[in-house]
Design brief:
Length: about 70
């Protein structure tokens, strides 16, 4: 993901762990729940909002295409 973001000329800032409330999960569900993180990506000052969205889209496509 980080390489795909940088290839589109965007700024990868950090990974953020997504807070979850797992208090209602049973043992089986808790032991198999996924680890979820979000990538924080900054928009360069010289990139318009619409162009930023386009680059985010292509970054996501590139990063999921290769696993």
């Amino acid at each position: 993901m980080q390489d795909a973001v940088k290839a589109e000329g965007l700024d990868f800032i950090a990974w953020r762990k997504v807070p979850v409330d797992n208090s209602c999960l049973g043992r089986k569900a808790e032991s198999t729940r996924p680890y979820i993180v979000q990538g924080m990506i900054g928009r360069p000052a010289d990139v318009a909002a619409e162009e930023f969205e386009r680059r985010l889209f292509f970054s996501a496509k590139k990063s999921t295409a290769f696993g």
